[in-house]
Amino acid sequence: MGSAVACVVSDWQAAEAGQISLRRGERVRILKHSKANGYFVQKLRNSSLTSGMLSSEEGWVPTHAIAFASATNTSNGPSKKPWSFKFRKPSFNSGTTAGILRKRADRRFLDSLESQDISDVNGCSDGGSSSSLEAKIEILCKLVDLTVAVGDQIQMTCQVHVPSHFDMKNINVVWRKQVDKETGLSSCLIEGGRYSIYYSDGLARLTISDCHISDAGIYSCTVNANDMISSSVTTTACLTVNACKIGQPRVRALSPTTALVVWDGDPSVCYTLYHEQCNVTSQGDIENVNTVGTTQYVLGLSHCVDGLQPGCVYVFRVSNSLPSEPLLLPMPTSSNQFSSSRWQQEQFGRRYLEKEVLGRGRYAVVKRAQDRGTGQQVAAKQVHRIRQAPNITHAEYSVMLGLQHQSIVKAFALFESSPLSEVDTIIMELVSGPMLLAYVCQEDTVSEKTVNVYMLQLFSALDYLHNKKIVHFDIRPENILVDLSNLNPVLKLIDLGESVHRKHLQEITPPASLEFAAPECVLGQPAGPPCDVWGAAVYLYVFLSGLSPFLDESVEETTANVLKCDYSFPDEYFGTVSQDAKSLISRILMAQPNHRISASDAINCSWFQMSGDIPFSISTSRLSLFVNRRQPLHNLLS
């Protein structure tokens, strides 16, 4: 392993045996590293004739005293990187939420931030040790646990950030599988056979085809740099391979180009769905089978397959199942011999009675509907095909069908081209209550314990989604309702439309609500589970105080506040709020996604572990003003 050259950024006087004294500006070669002692270095000669040559002086120095020379600027003044965003200075008028929150110290802090880069700069400067932290490889997106069926192909993926001054030729990616739980012994995986290993630009991926039961276990990915001491990161995940008996899938045509596939099995497993084109002989034999499509990580026990050829014969397999019976898709016709859309319209009209509009959004109108047979009240989400393609609506329905959590709204049925030919309708659980924040404002005060109970339900729902590799992408008050149909009110998270749009269209739309959007979403960057947790933390801040932590007088100022994580806990509004609640918010509202705790970590934090009542009550007067301001947005169901 090579050794790295570093620059001394602050004077250091040896205080113990084995240490070495250094002056700022000198260069050293790092020989080894210890968490307890720092770096063991050898001084380089500084004269022009002997530059780069080693001297005989060596010893230990603390970590804060040096920074890697390849990332430094050794000029007389610190360097300043340009930043593409240019913020207006926020106004501090007292009439806004931001004006209430910000004191003079906050203004000075904002001014100082405008003269700095928003990201850490690792290097030698006159700024002292606080700006000279060692640049390291960081994990941006960890491996996630997977549950699949025997015979499936899986991909385990993680994303790391490698500092630009690292030599990419010296980056190593090592995949391992644990072979002994007691000793932790693991074996190194290599390219070939059923294993495919890929790495590029910080993206590491392991692909295992035709999964066996023996493939189940703990996998790890380690990324390190040969020429950088202590630059190694590891992320792990568990792969579960189920040998569940799926049986023969059942299929039916929804239209000349769409088929619905239904199967038996474990709803918690991610399945792989294959559709194959074939011919059927006069004796009923299947021949010339050709796989024409594969859909991975299918959640639930049904899936709509779109884009099929009218008049062709298909069979379908789910992971290691038997093939389905052959399905002959009808030819499109204007006659009454076969009209899937007309048939579905008739079925919808016979079963459901449409009632009033509950809300309108970018893609859909949601109406109350009643089952004519049972009298059950449901919500009918009607999506116009001009605004959203049918395959996206089918995908949203398939995702919802596989979710079974008390705080996530359920889907019951999908009617294609119903009630009109240009509209698709998802029949969903009707939430018999308003926005949660509007509900609690019916009382003059709300206890912190009540906030605690509802927030635990929200983080539990997010943890459930994230474990299924689903990101909501749109956590805001309008998508958090309360169900009052039971004795104890239950939080309900609605609307997975944004999640499906991002996954299937590979497009990033502007945030529906800027004040609840994470920095990476504001910047239009790829986002993951941390953006949901951010939205939940902003929601908790509002729940406890009635104030929006980042909202300002203009879009530009609100954007600046979000990107700088500029918020505080004024005693006037948080004086009676427990420290544990504020600590939870602080551990989430961090600019870098990988620095935020996960939904699972939030559930296990001290605030949710407190026993008994939390002896604080919070006035809902400010929260009522917040709800009234956003009430027009309650009709937006993105």
β-strand number: 30
Number of spatially distinct domains: 5
Shape: globular
- The second-level CATH architecture of the largest domain is Orthogonal Bundle
**Helix content range of the residues, please?**
10-25%
**Number of discrete helical segments:** 15
CATH topology of the largest domain: Transferase(Phosphotransferase), domain 1
Beta-strand percentage? 25-35%
Q: Give start-end ranges of low-pLDDT stretches.
A: 47-52, 69-133, 634-638
Radius of gyration: 29 Å
Global mean pLDDT: 80
Strand order of the biggest β-sheet: 4-3-2-1-5
What's the main sheet like?
Answer: 5 strands, antiparallel
Distance between the termini: 53 Å
- Give the name of the CATH superfamily of the largest domain: Transferase(Phosphotransferase) domain 1
What is the CATH class of the largest domain?
Mainly Alpha
User: Structural class per helix/strand content?
Assistant: alpha+beta
Keywords: ATP-binding, Disulfide bond, Immunoglobulin domain, Kinase, Nucleotide-binding, Repeat, Serine/threonine-protein kinase, Transferase
Protein name: Kalirin
Pfam family, one: I-set
Organism: Megalurothrips usitatus
